[in-house]
Design a protein that fits this description.
alpha+beta, 2 domains, 12 strands
């Protein structure tokens, strides 16, 4: 027996133990075998990770039976995707912590381009994978990360309002009755509350401006006693350092309630973060490097000042608390390029602020691996259940790869599992040579 074959069999035994550890989340012993088969198909090499190509790689002499078993498991079987994700986190996060403390919770949404309009949640909306508006599904995700690795622990389809209010479309793809329209920040807060309830080690929440510009999202994190470092848009308004709204007007009579609204005037008002960035002196900006990139050290110019956000929708009687405004202004750019709000401690150094913010790149690696290596975007079914099952199984496979590599990036090493060879006469369904056959 070759050394490679021996190694693959050892990996297979470890994967079997991993699958058995996840079995309670599947709620039935009969689901363990198709679970192992599906995750094996996701991990094995192959350009397409939809059910039939995976079945052909796993059981080339019994493709039809394996295909039916795996298809039923992912599209119909009534196990909970959320429960499986929780169990994966319970197994993998402690291993990550052995490498380094959890240092970030990363909220993001990921787009999956789709043709047609019948798959659950498909609509013309922004697709990050394509960088433009397109026909796609969008899922809101929460990942936990440290200096060594990152792991998605929540994955929920964003159901556009046009879907959420259409009973016929909902019924056609099995959207549960209790699922109602929620904005992406609302979904993200639900995921964060669930992670807290699960006992995931708390850390700083990172997200892009779609979340950072949402006052209710930021307030929700603060209410949960979570710190954040969230991107915001250039037109977001703040009070200049040292400034705040004027006190309420003095009471002029004893009738009615006393005035409580904080005030602004023509000469005393908030400014956009872009305007404030331009007002700062040149020596406020420092060059900070935060990690080694593929070809060079990553560095840019940053400034950080303490400000009070101007919350247009907050009750005007509540004085906003001071927090950090972090600005990136590369030396070769005419204007600043990025901005963040952060509630990290007021004594936090600029180096630490930047290093914390820049951990968000890990979410990009998560989804590069999940989409290109593990087939996250390859699911061909249309149902709510199948969409979430497939995503949870991709994360389960990803979690095993992290465990195999000691919580380091799966892309650095290829995990080998035993693979059957295809019979000489095998033809995939739909090929030209099988047309017309029974």
């Amino acid at each position: 027996m070759s050394k490679a074959s021996t190694s693959a069999r050892a990996v297979a035994r470890r994967f079997e133990r991993y699958a058995n550890a996840l079995a309670p989340a599947l709620q039935h012993a009969d689901r363990v075998e198709p679970f192992e088969a599906y995750c094996t198909g996701l991990i094995l090499p192959g350009e397409r990770k939809s059910v039939e190509p995976m079945a052909s790689r796993i059981a080339p002499r019994a493709v039809r039976a394996k295909h039916q078993s795996m298809h039923h498991f992912v599209s119909t079987s009534p196990w909970s995707a959320d429960r499986l994700l929780r169990q994966v986190a319970n197994l993998v996060v402690p291993e990550m912590e052995r490498q380094a403390p959890i240092s970030a919770w990363i909220i993001d949404d990921t787009g999956i381009p789709k043709k047609g309009k019948h798959s659950v949640g498909v609509a013309h909306q922004y697709c990050g994978q394509l960088g433009k508006q397109a026909n796609c599904q969008v899922a809101v995700t929460l990942s936990v990360a440290n200096a060594a690795a990152s792991l998605p622990i929540a994955h929920r389809l964003y159901l556009p309002e046009e879907w959420a209010t259409d009973r016929e479309r909902r019924a056609s793809v099995g959207v549960p009755e209790d699922v109602r329209f929620k904005t992406k920040p609302e979904i993200a807060l639900e995921q964060i509350r669930a992670a807290i309830a699960q006992g995931i080690p708390r850390s700083t929440v990172l997200a892009d401006a779609a979340y950072g510009n949402n006052t209710a999202f930021r307030d929700g994190l603060t209410t949960l006693n979570l710190r954040y470092a969230l991107a915001i848009q250039s037109n977001t308004c703040v009070w200049r350092p040292g400034e705040k709204p004027l006190a309420p007007k003095r009471r002029t009579s004893h009738l009615g309630r006393p005035p409580s609204a904080l005030r602004r005037t023509i000469s005393h008002h908030p400014v956009s973060v872009l305007e404030l960035a331009r007002e700062l002196p040149a020596n406020a900006y420092r060059t900070i490097q935060w990690r080694e990139g593929t070809n060079d050290v990553l560095r840019s110019r940053f400034a950080a000042v303490r400000v009070r956000p101007s919350h247009e929708r907050r009750p005007q009687s509540i004085l906003p608390q001071e927090e950090w405004l972090v600005i990136e202004w590369p030396k070769d750019e005419a204007n600043p390029t990025k901005y963040w709000f952060s509630t990290l401690d007021k004594n936090t150094s600029l180096q630490t602020l930047v290093a914390t913010i820049m951990q968000r790149w890990r979410i990009e690696r998560d989804y590069q691996e999940l989409k290109s290596e593990l087939g996250l975007t390859h699911y061909e079914g249309r149902s709510w259940l199948g969409f979430h099952h497939h995503a949870a199984l991709c994360v389960a496979a990803y979690g095993f790869l992290l465990l195999e590599q000691g919580a380091f990036s799966p892309s650095k090493h290829r995990v080998e599992l035993p693979q059957s060879s295809l019979p000489d006469d095998f033809k995939p369904r739909g090929s030209a040579s099988t047309h017309g056959q029974a």
